[in-house]
Amino acid sequence: MRSEILEFPTRLSFIIQFGVIGFFVTSIHKNHKSMPVFTLRINGKEYKTDVAADTPLLWVLRDHLGLVGTKYGCGIAQCGACTVHIEGNPVRSCTLPVSAVKTAKVTTIEGLSKDGDHPVQLAWDEIDVPQCGYCQAGQIMTAAALLKRNPKPTVQQIEDAMHGNLCRCGAYHRIREAIISASKKI
Prior knowledge:
The protein is of the alpha+beta class and 186 residues long. Helix content is 30%, strand content 21%. It contains six helices and eight strands; from the N terminus they run βββββαββαβαααα. It has helices at 57-64, 98-101, 119-127, 136-149, 155-162, 172-183, and strands at 4-7, 12-17, 20-25, 37-42, 45-50, 83-86, 89-92, 105-107. The strands form two sheets. It has a five-stranded mixed beta sheet with strand order 5-4-8-6-7, with helices on both faces. A three-stranded antiparallel beta sheet has the order 1-2-3, with no helix packed on it. The radius of gyration is 21 Å and the shape is elongated. It starts with a strand and ends with a helix. Residues 1-30 have low confidence and may be disordered.
C-alpha cells in the first residue's frame, strides 16, 4: 500500500498509510518564518529561547528551559500551581505570553532561594504542609510574595492573598500556619 503526505497551510500534515490516518506537525512550509528569539532573565540568569510570541511562559520554563518546578494545573490561571514572580509579584505563568515578559525579572521556585532556605520553604518543612505536593510550588511562591510585601500579615490578609491558590488535598490550615510561622522569622 502506498503512503501519501498531504500538506495544508496550517502546517498540519496527514499521513495515510495502511488505511490508517495519522497526523504530525511539519516545520517545512512555503511561508514558514523563523520564531522570534526572546531573552529572558530568570532566577538571576539570562536565557535565550526561540518560541512563538504567544507561547505561555509556563511552557517556555518547563519545555524549553528545563525549569520544571513550576507546575501546570488548569491552564486558565485559576488554580495557582503555575505561579512565578515577575519583578517580585506573583503571576500565573500558564496564561502569560512569553512576549509580555519583555525584560522583567522572573523568579521560579528553583530561584526562590539557593539552598531551599527561604523562610517560607523552611516553614513548609517545619509544619509538614504538603500532602501530594503538586500545588506547593505555587503556594510557596504566592506566600513568599505576600511576605515580601507585608512581613507581618493578619490571618485575613493571608487568606485574601492565598485565596486563588487551590489545594486538592485541603491543606489550607497547614498552609496558613506555615505562613504565620515564616512571618515570625522574617
